[in-house]
Structure formats: C-alpha cells, structure tokens
Amino acid sequence: MCGVPMCGLASVLAVERDHWIRQGALAHFVWNVGHWFPFVESLPLLPRVGLLTLWAVFVGFFLLTMLQRILLRLLFSYQVRVVA
C-alpha cells in the first residue's frame, strides 16, 4: 500500500512544471481542493504539491478499490439459471 502513493508522488514531483500531469484538469481540481485546507496555503510550493498529490493518490486508490469491490460483487453474485 505504501508503494502506490510514493510512485504517484515521485511521478508528479519529478516532471517539469509545464508537464500535463501538473497542468491538466485533474491537477487544477486537486489544487482547488487544496484551498479547502487552511494549513496548505502556508506551505512552500513543492511540499504543497507533494501533500496534495498524496491526498489525490489516497483518494483515487480508495475510489478504485471501491469500484473493484462493486464489480467483483456483481460478477460473483451472478447466477446462471438452468431451464429444465
């Protein structure tokens, strides 16, 4: 579980500032969500980007696992009806 957030964090912090992963729609959404947390505004740029990236990775990973659970429940609860 710890490797997924670190890979996400490293991939965001290692790219240039004008790369699509830091300038795309998802990045703008995460940046705007960061305004809801009062302590994030006082951080320097790189720690702020890192903190918001970790938040986005955790939320995204959680949503992905929820979706996987729902799909697997649907798949395993399917019953084939035999017509005699």
Taking all Cα atoms into account, the compactness measure Rg is 19 Å
Number of strands: 0
Distance between the termini: 48 Å
Question: Which residues form runs of ≥5 with pLDDT under 50?
Answer: none
Mean pLDDT: 82
Oligomer: single chain
Largest sheet: none
Overall, the morphology is elongated
Share in β-strands: under 5%
Task: Tell me roughly what share of residues is in helical segments.
Answer: 55-70%
Number of helices, counting only DSSP H or I runs of 4 residues or more: 4
Order of helices and strands: HHHH
Structural class: mainly alpha
Task: List the topology elements.
Blueprint: H1 3-13, H2 20-23, H3 25-33, H4 45-77
Helix pairs in contact: 1-4
Short description:
By secondary structure, this protein is an all-alpha fold. The chain has helices at 3-13, 20-23, 25-33, 45-77.
Relevant terms:
84 residues; mainly alpha
Describe the structure.
By secondary structure, this protein is mainly α. The protein has four helices and no strands. The chain has helices at residues 3-13, 20-23, 25-33, 45-77. The longest helix has 33 residues, at 45-77. It is elongated, with a radius of gyration of 19 Å. The model has no long low-confidence stretch (mean pLDDT 82).
